Amino acid sequence: MTDIKFAWTALGGDPALTSRLSTVERTGTLESRLPVRQLARACVGACALAAAELGARRAGLGEVPRAVVDDGAVAAAFHSERLLRMDGRAPVSFAPLSRFWRTTDGWVRTHANYPHHRARLLAALGLSEGASVEEAAGRFAERTALETEEAVYEAGGLAVALRTPKEWAAHEQSAHLAARPLVERELLGPARARVLPPLDPATAPLLPAAGLRVLDLTRVLAGPVATRTLGLLGAEVLRLDAPHLPELADQHADTGFGKRSAALDLAVGRDAFEELLASADVVVTGYRPGALDRFGLSPEALAERRPGLVVAQVSAWGAYGPWRGRRGFDSLVQVATGIAATEGSAGEPGALPAQALDHGSGYLLAAAVLRALAEQSYDGHSRLVRLALARTARWLTDGIEPAPATGAAHEGPDAWLAETDSRLGLLRYALPPVSFTGGPADWARPPVPWGSDAPVWS
Questions:
Q1: Helix (H/G/I), strand (E/B), else coil: 185
Q2: What is the distance between the alpha carbons of residues 327 and 157, in angstroms, rounded to a whole number?
Q3: How far apart (Å, rounded) are the C-alpha atoms in residues 47 and 10?
Q4: CA nearest neighbour of 47 among 439, 444, 445
Q5: Which residues lie closer than 8 Å to 65 by C-beta, 6 or more apart?
Q6: Three-state SS for 5?
């Protein structure tokens, strides 16, 4: 329970409440050289406890409901984007140009799943849109890893040089991350104590976030996992995307449970956004720090216009240091922070058994929102909660003491999979791992086609 207690106290939770959480440990889940199983269990456990705490507060319960975290459910959830099936079709995980490449002195990893990122990568390599993997490999083989990293970054693409843990520890960005807490929590400005409508304890399931409105301005994968979890817990979640940047279909289906989806151009649809903000309780963003500030969406600007708001942010590298403005994804953070080097073998880089930085940060972000709402009910204030994948990576590599696996053998994910009909077809999906007595066992609504809803509250 040490790792769960650390995550819970990082969220500002009362350490005594961890006695209300139990674990079901299973061997054979999320196996890795690094303590991925422990990180995943701690993130989901802390989220379940935060949900139970808020539910007890709103329902006037004498004690917090018991929460449970099951390694089997967690493993399935951390593989949700791989386990998804749409009418029997398996999802596409990575595009052909999203991979490791040999350079003159090592390796780089690229991310080119989105068309605009692919175009920028090819431009940085001096290749045309129709270039093959073999042509790209030839260009990478002519450059050093760091030269490639900088050239692609300058072109607006995504490429990160493979670093060892020692090399990353010497990097300036690593020093900035080390100086920050796992979960950043700030007061943005004064506001009266939040009056949360009471919940009937006799009504099942107990939905801690019922009646709350969440604006979801996130992209793959941590942010959407957080808002998917808030949707599970009863919040009305409205995801907003720019019309010219549609989400990848498989990613949208996986993370769209419990949400509505609308397209809104913030450059021309400010009036519509302000109407949404006027009655929002939470705004969650997953873009590079500062990327949305020009639209008046900095945490301070949002809180000024909507006192009492909870603003939640997640980014790849953090809102500080020389890499604060860089794009990033889980796979790239693993490469930069030494994880890929640690997990590699025979001179080749490796990867974690799941996109654990994304999923773990997502559940922690949802937990941070729930805790902020609970704290607001006592002493008010607009609040900011913030996580970075690279900071979660530091916790994984330097903050968790590996422990041997115990418990029954894991027999696969089938016990934690379900099917539902949807407007996207027949979906097979991983059930939510966040569990507490009286809480929801599944989402109330399946995902909808991307951008198919109007940008208004229901």
A1: strand
A2: 8
A3: 12
A4: 439
A5: 20, 52, 55, 56, 206, 436, 437, 438, 439
A6: helix
pLDDT of amino acid 379: 93
The pLDDT tens digits of the residues spanning 344-365 come to: 999 999 999 999 999 999 999 9
Strands 382-388 and 184-189: antiparallel
DSSP state of 90: P
Taking the C-alpha atoms of residue 403 and residue 23, their distance in angstroms, rounded to an integer, is 15
**Chain position carrying tokens 């690593």:** 174
Angle of helix 356-379 relative to helix 222-232, nearest 10 degrees?
50
- For strands 435-436 and 100-102, give the pairing: unpaired
pLDDT for position 436: 98
d(CA 273, CA 4): 37
| Phi (first) and psi of residue 421, to 5 degrees | -80, 150
3-state secondary structure of 174: helix
> For position 1, what pLDDT does the model report?
78
Query: In whole angstroms, what is the distance from residue 208 CA to residue 183 CA?
Result: 21
- Choose among 213, 185, 209: nearest CA to 374: 209
Contacts of 175 (CB under 8 A, 6+ apart): 321
Q: Residue 93 has what pLDDT? A: 82
Tokens of 429: 């999906």
Distance of alpha carbon 102 from alpha carbon 109, whole angstroms: 9
The pLDDT of residue 72: 98
Phi-psi region of 103 (alpha: psi -120 to 50; beta: other; left: phi over 0): beta
The sign of the dihedral angle between the CA atoms of 120, 123, 128, 134 is negative
What is the rounded distance in angstroms from the CA atom of residue 330 to the CA atom of residue 334? 6
- How far apart are the C-alpha atoms of 328 and 22, rounded to whole Å? 34
User: Exposed, middle or buried by CB within 10 Å (0-12, 13-18, 19+), for 280?
Assistant: buried
pLDDT < 50: residue spans in the chain: none
Q: In 24-87, which ranges are continuous DSSP H helix?
A: 36-59, 71-78, 80-83
Pick the closest to residue 457 from 242, 296, 311, 277 (CA basis).
277
Alpha helices (H) along 19-178: 36-59, 71-78, 80-83, 115-125, 133-140, 145-154, 165-169, 172-178
Tokens 């949400």 found at: 259
Cβ atoms 44, 8 nearer than 8 A: no
DSSP summary character for residue 295: G
